[in-house]
Design goal:
Number of strands: 8
Shape: extended
Strand order of the largest sheet: 6-5-7-8
Helix content: 40-55%
Radius of gyration: 39 Å
Distance between the termini: 125 Å
Largest sheet: 4 strands, mixed
Structural class: alpha+beta
Order of helices and strands: HHHHHHHEEHHHEEHHEEEHEH
Strand content: 5-15%
Length: 428
């Protein structure tokens, strides 16, 4: 049986087993030869720069379009092409340049400059997370944590200071009686001041006195600072940072190893004394206040303490107010005697409600007539509301008492007495 063939040059016949001869085999293409093996010259390669591509066509913006883009340019919201076109146009058009300058200034007022410092609460959160996983063998007492944090934050601010910043002028401000006063020094002088006053806590703990053989006229913070400043032939320099930081580490280490019972150890300040747990809060408060003084001197932003630590500082100031009121009354600086209503110690008496708003806030009832009396809502004669940070700045002597209160209701003399007593908490 013969199969059907295919016409043309590729015709072949299928073999069906008969004795007839098979057709020609199918054609298989031969392997291709590489151009390198052919002996022919290779084509020339083009250099990357030889390709002549037409340059991209830049869009052309008319004056009305460029003027409409000024707002987006001021907010840095333009594309790269639009920003380039606007900036080239500003060099040619004076009216648009003036408008762009005003828009940039307005944007600067709307945007608060961000601090390069870490969130003051970040360190506490990281430590808390670490301590939850592995409790410390020697924990830092809770009442010393604020001092530990604030000294670390101030040290972080100082670490990149050059000589110019260390000698930048700083004005220390506080209240004496009813009058604001100040003292001029430098950044290095402020750290020397902190070193000198922290030395009161160091001496109470049995550590070395940073004044060494230098004798102060009185064991007060101001006298110790003046003695330290006067002991050197030259003003303090950046070299004061190392002993201050070493002393702060030693204080935290000592109170940690000594245990919680040491918190009641008295720390004399010359005119008064504080238990150690309050003295450490006082030192944390002053460290933060003077860190802000330093940051203002070098034009650098500085955040308030974490809410937990700020609340403790406010609570210390509120607990000290009745004693300061009594001292001012003995000095003739408080309201006349006929306004007083003395009660037995521990009994409720005339009170002022101190409401602290915002971060770290709360409410405190301040007894007005005697430190031994008990604050009472039933005997409330006045109510004052302040922001937490503003109250701390009042207690640091940085805000006039007449301008501090955000709201006040009730006995005007009681309100004035408390606000001026808060300012009297300040000292150099």
């Amino acid at each position: 049986m013969r199969g059907c063939g295919v016409s043309g040059p590729d015709r072949f016949e299928a073999y069906d087993g008969d004795d007839e001869e098979p057709g020609p085999p199918p054609r298989i293409p031969v392997p291709r030869v590489s151009v390198e093996d052919s002996g022919l010259p290779l084509p020339a390669l083009e250099e990357p720069g030889d390709a002549t591509e037409p340059p991209p066509v830049r869009p052309v913006f008319e004056h009305p379009v460029l003027k409409a883009l000024l707002g987006a340019w001021a907010l840095a919201a333009c594309s790269a092409e639009e920003a380039t076109a606007v900036e080239e146009h500003l060099g040619e058009c004076g009216a648009c340049a003036d408008e762009a300058r005003r828009l940039r200034e307005a944007v600067g007022l709307l945007q608060r400059p961000d601090s390069l410092d870490l969130d003051p609460g970040l360190r506490a959160r990281v430590l808390e997370s670490c301590l939850e996983r592995r409790p410390p063998r020697v924990p830092v007492p809770d009442w010393a944590a604020a001092y530990d944090t604030e000294t670390a934050r101030l040290d972080a601010l100082l670490q990149d200071f050059g000589d110019a910043e260390w000698h930048a002028p700083v004005r220390l401000r506080w209240f004496r009686g009813d009058q604001a006063t100040s003292r001029r020094t430098t950044v290095a002088g402020v750290i020397a001041h902190l070193l000198s006053v922290d030395g009161l806590v160091a001496v109470a703990l049995g550590l070395d006195d940073p004044l060494g053989d230098v004798a102060a006229r009185q064991p007060t913070p101001a006298s110790r600072t003046e003695a330290y400043w006067s002991a050197s032939r030259f003003p303090p320099t950046r070299a004061v940072r190392a002993p201050w930081r070493e002393q702060s580490h030693n204080l935290v280490r000592s109170v940690s190893f000594t245990g919680s019972g040491v918190g009641r150890l008295p720390v004399p300040y010359g005119d008064f004394e504080l238990p150690l747990h309050d003295a450490m809060l006082d030192r944390a408060f002053e460290c933060w206040v003077h860190a802000e003084d330093i940051a203002d001197a070098v034009d650098y932003p500085y955040d308030p303490p974490s809410p937990r630590h700020l609340h403790r500082m406010i609570d210390l100031a509120a607990r000290m107010l009745p004693h300061v009121l009594a001292d001012r009354r003995r000095g003739g600086l408080a309201a006349p005697v006929h306004h007083r209503h003395l009660v037995t110690a521990g009994q409720p008496g005339r009170s002022l409600r101190l409401e602290i708003e915002g971060s770290g806030g709360g409410e405190w009832l301040i007894p007005l007539d005697s430190p031994a009396a008990k604050g009472s809502a039933e005997h409330e004669v006045a109510h004052v509301a302040l922001d937490g940070v503003e109250f701390c700045r009042l207690a640091a002597g940085h805000v006039p008492p007449q301008e501090a209160a955000a709201g006040q209701v009730g006995d005007r003399e009681a309100i004035r007495d408390v606000l001026f007593a808060a300012a009297s908490l300040s000292r150099m």
